[in-house]
Design a protein that fits this description.
The protein has 3 domains: about 100 residues, Beta Barrel (Lipocalin); about 100 residues, no CATH class; about 120 residues, no CATH class. The two termini are about 35 Å apart. Helix content is about 10%, strand content about 40%. It is globular. Strands 1-4-3-2-9-8-7-6-5 form a 9-stranded antiparallel β-sheet, with no helix packed on it. Strands 10-14-12-11 form a 4-stranded antiparallel β-sheet. It contains 4 helices and 20 strands.
Length: about 375
């Protein structure tokens, strides 16, 4: 249940399959038992147009922005949290004051009963984290850089409270993130730039949660101050993938809940990418930095933030930059399709091969950082 972390905001839509669905408006809350942990979950539902419901889901004791969609038929209620590969299926009680069912993530089902809260029993809803001011200094008050534990797998960029963390990140990984590049857009530099891994922990000077643009700015300054990075830019013609909207239109869901918040773009396994509150540029950044073997260009023309889930069976050309060896193809009948099929089927988008002039960052100077 690692993905059910931090403050949670989820847009919830109930279909009109339940008679008088708006009678379910109100606060629904229950405790999820995960090992020795108790996580308080609250759904705040309110009336919307055409007899539907809209709402917000909170994890009182943790947090993370996770979108959800609820469908209902008779007394059966099903919630799919696309941003975390979560499904809740339950049955509305005869008194209309409880929904009993199972909360499932990654195949692990846990019983969960939601009770309609009253004014006296309702849990206090936490305030959402406040965004960092637009004019805040893009600098760390304090930052530590340490060599990574060689036995620790994976790679991570994240924000926890006021801390910005990276785990198992090379210099090239940091450059890719800071300047929104593909690894092939970095030229020059020493061999250790793509082999030696670092863990970075930084606390920004300014309070609040930084946007992705502010995060990039802070990492850029870190690269200059601690790695003494100096570079110049060039243009080179190279193969790229262009993401375009398919002939029948896209299948993405608009997210307008937190336009200044961080996106959720955390893989739940190879070929399992739930996305929430992300711009197309942020999605492109993840695809080119983590998955694909060439730079990716956004040609969709889609603006704003979006929710969707992409599931596919990766091949050996993918996830190379993550240092992951993709397992051989499976013959399972229910295996997800390949990436180039999953894009149009699941997103209504296409990945087109092309050549284009691409900006390249050429390293002129860089040094290994001190660990303080």
């Amino acid at each position: 249940m690692r993905t059910l972390l931090r403050w949670v905001v989820a847009l919830v839509v109930l279909s009109a399959g339940v008679a008088n669905a708006q009678g379910l408006a109100g606060n629904w809350q229950g405790t999820l038992r995960v090992g020795d942990r108790a996580l308080r979950i609250v759904f705040v539902l309110s009336a919307a147009d055409a007899g539907a419901l809209r709402g917000v889901m909170y994890s009182i004791d943790q947090g993370q922005a996770i979108p959800a969609t609820i469908t209902a038929q008779g007394s059966a209620v099903r919630m799919v949290v696309a941003g975390a590969n979560i499904t809740f299926e339950g049955s509305l009680g005869a008194d209309g004051n409880s929904i009993a069912g199972n909360f499932t993530q990654g195949g692990n089902a846990i019983p969960l009963t939601l009770q309609r809260a009253t004014k006296d029993t309702a849990w206090a809803i936490p305030e959402p984290p406040k965004p960092m001011a637009a004019d805040a200094p893009l600098a760390f008050e304090v930052a530590t850089i340490k060599l990574s534990n060689p036995d620790q797998p994976g790679r991570l960029f994240t924000v926890r409270g006021r801390q910005v963390l990276t785990i198992n990140t090379t210099l090239n990984d940091l450059i890719v993130f800071a300047y929104d590049l593909h690894a092939k857009q970095i030229a020059g530099g020493p061999d250790w730039a793509e082999s030696q891994k670092f863990d970075v922990t930084g606390q920004p000077e300014a309070p609040g949660t930084p946007s992705i643009t502010q995060l990039r700015g802070m990492i850029r300054l870190l690269l200059t101050d601690r790695f003494k990075l100096a570079f110049h830019r060039d243009k080179r013609d190279m193969p790229v993938y262009a993401i375009v909207v398919g002939p029948n239109g896209h299948k993405l869901t608009k997210n307008e809940t937190n336009p200044n918040g961080l996106p959720n773009l955390l893989f739940r396994g190879l070929g399992v990418l739930p996305v929430s509150n992300a711009t197309m540029g942020e999605f492109v950044g993840v695809m080119q930095s983590a998955v694909l073997d060439r730079p990716v260009v956004d040609k969709t023309g889609l603006t704003g933030r979006w929710d969707f889930q992409l599931r596919w069976t990766p091949d050996e050309s993918q996830f190379v930059s993550m240092g992951v060896r993709v397992p051989p193809p499976t013959n399972e009948a229910n295996a997800p399709p390949g990436l180039f099929t999953a894009f149009p089927e699941q997103l209504g988008l296409k990945l087109d091969s092309a050549r284009a002039p691409v900006e390249v960052l050429v390293i002129d100077k860089v040094e290994k950082p001190s660990e303080n």
